Amino acid sequence: MWGIIATWRMAVEGITKAKEELESGGDAGNAIETAIREVEDFPYYKSVGYGGLPNEEMEVELDAAFMDGNTLSIGAVAAIKDFANPVSIAKRLAKEKVNNVLVAEGAEKFAHKEGFERKNMLTDRAKIHYRKRVKELSQEIKPYSGHDTVGMVCLDQSGKMTAATSTSGLFMKKKGRVGDSPIVGSGFYADSEVGGASATGLGE
Ligand code: GLY
Q1: Potential cystine with 196: which of 64, 81, 181, 190 (Cβ 3.0-4.6 Å)?
Q2: How many whole angstroms from 158 Cα to the centroid of ligand 1?
Q3: Is the CB of 148 under 6 A from ligand 1?
Q4: Cβ(61) – ligand 1 distance below 6 Å
Q5: Which pTM was predicted?
Q6: Taking the alpha carbons of 187, 36, 8, 135 in that order, is the dihedral positive or negative?
Q7: For the CA of 178, the nearest atom of ligand 1
Q8: Is the pLDDT of residue 144 over 70?
Q9: Which ranges of 28-100 would DSSP assign to H, the alpha helix?
Q10: Residues annotated as catalytic (active site), given as ranges
């Protein structure tokens, strides 16, 4: 038995790829990473990874997390800039016994040292949305409606369960703002003996 469940339409291509791995006996950690990377790499999803909507300083700051339900180990990054796949950095951090949740420059320094791919995550399309929103600033700031965090829970044939999240968070957020997605027990959880969960919506 295996399975993978995710938030929003944006996850379909990712979980379709992960399904192939899981069907052939692949690991739930690798499969969930494959699935979330697919969402992070797609430029037209406005709330995750490349093409994610920027903060009020027009910077794309990303949050992501990973949890292994066998060991209950977690890794997370928050407010990280200029790296292509925050979920992979979070998964790598889950191998650390300490210092496994890193933010901003600390997360970027770790990712650079570990050789993760650098990328300017701000697209021209996101800049257009930003400029339009600046014009509308008299209105109340709301989370980008209809699309949000990608969160997934995955089970492989060995019975291992994982959970992972990735998001650019609230559009026009304050620099350094962190929502629920990289916070264990808030944005995600997985225990192979019990089950898994992931949250979406306004993180506050
Ligand atoms: N749930 C995503 C966020 O609020 O950052």
Answers
A1: 190
A2: 31
A3: yes
A4: no
A5: 0.93
A6: positive
A7: 5
A8: no
A9: 28-41, 86-93
A10: 149
Residue 145, pLDDT score: 52
146: pLDDT strictly greater than 50: no
DSSP structure class, residue 7: S
Q: Are 163 and 157 in contact (CB under 8 A)?
A: no
Kindly give the distance from the C-alpha atom of residue 202 to the centroid of ligand 1, in angstroms, as a whole number. 5
Nearest to 101, CA basis, from 199, 15, 184 = 184
How would residue 43 be classed by pLDDT, with cut points 50, 70 and 90?
A: very high
Inter-helix orientation angle 86-93/104-113, to 10°: 80
Cβ of 167 below 6 Å from ligand 1: yes
No. of helices (H) and no. of strands (E), the chain: 5, 8
Q: What is the pLDDT of residues 157-172, one digit of tens each?
A: 999 999 999 999 999 8
